[in-house]
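Reminder to self: tokens first, then the designed residues, so the page reads top to bottom the way the pipeline ran.
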């Protein structure tokens, strides 16, 4: 005789709030420097990734004519602002220095050309030793900030600059939003290296707002802070943030905390074959939001022989 039991386990009901990563045990390939240059291109004001920005590697400290046969073209930045270049082994090495430069005619401005230094420490092929004066590791991603010269300069008080931290650490990938007095949400975007800059749109309305994590944010919570927009000489600007006057010259510190789920239990743990509408999930953890969501999976019945 067989008995059909449908079990509800924590593995069947997975909370959308849980974002754990479990790495398996394997061989670790350690590289001191590496032969791959990884760049992240962002707008200096908004701190958001820029697509389609083109650079090249200019060879030599004293080269005058551009381009030279030793200069290297790089792919344009992708949608995430990323550019990757892997040394091919035939790069010039006598001066061992390249400069990251914008291509001629670019609408963007780079305040300084970033230096890339090459080396061949083991006589086994060129590697990147330093980028912008900092030791280059295999996983290093260098952030490049540029401004668009074709865009009319914006009043600093029209750009909300925020620096997101958890404790003393900058936090990337946090989605922030502004909420008006009716709870209507305007998503600002995701933080990059802890920073974000949001430029008020032309249809911005003066009033009292609240800065907080987005309603879709599933990793972090915060204590929201007030933001006041006012009409100043016919344009809407940011007057105050966190009850302090806002000038737009520096970023506003904004604290977030990670959502941590320690355990999830279900009651009852077994239900009859026809199912049940009364299942209670108990979630324990820290910084839990008021509302949790779970994803329900259908699973075939498990036969348990007696």
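Designed residues (306 positions):
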């Amino acid at each position: 005789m067989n008995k059909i039991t449908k079990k509800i386990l924590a593995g069947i009901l997975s909370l959308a709030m849980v974002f754990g990563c479990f790495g398996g045990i394997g061989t670790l390939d350690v590289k001191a420097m590496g032969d791959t240059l990884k760049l992240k291109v962002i707008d200096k004001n908004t701190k958001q990734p820029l697509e389609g920005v083109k650079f090249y590697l200019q060879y030599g400290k004293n080269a005058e004519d551009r381009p030279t046969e030793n200069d290297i073209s790089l792919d344009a930045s992708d949608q995430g602002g990323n550019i990757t270049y892997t040394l091919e082994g035939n790069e010039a090495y006598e001066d061992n220095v390249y400069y990251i430069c914008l291509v001629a005619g670019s609408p963007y401005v780079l305040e300084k050309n970033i230096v890339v230094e090459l080396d061949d420490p083991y006589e086994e092929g060129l590697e990147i030793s330093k980028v912008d004066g900092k030791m280059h590791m295999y996983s290093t991603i260098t952030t490049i900030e540029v401004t668009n010269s074709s865009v009319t300069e914006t009043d600093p008080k029209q750009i909300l600059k925020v620096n997101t931290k958890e404790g003393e650490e900058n936090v990337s990938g946090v989605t922030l939003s502004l909420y008006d007095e009716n709870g209507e949400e305007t998503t600002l975007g995701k933080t990059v290296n802890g920073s974000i800059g949001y430029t008020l749109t032309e249809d911005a309305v003066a009033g009292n707002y609240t800065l907080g994590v987005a309603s879709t944010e599933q990793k972090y919570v915060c204590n929201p802070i007030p933001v006041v927009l006012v009409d100043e000489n016919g344009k809407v600007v940011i007057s105050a943030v966190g009850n302090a006057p806002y000038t737009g010259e520096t970023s506003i510190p904004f604290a977030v905390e990670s959502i941590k789920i320690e355990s999830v239990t279900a009651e009852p743990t077994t239900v009859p074959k026809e199912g049940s509408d009364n299942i209670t999930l108990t979630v324990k953890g820290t910084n839990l939001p008021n509302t949790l969501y779970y994803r329900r999976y259908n699973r075939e019945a498990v036969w348990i022989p007696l």
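The domain at 36-148 is CATH 2.60.40.10 (Immunoglobulin-like).
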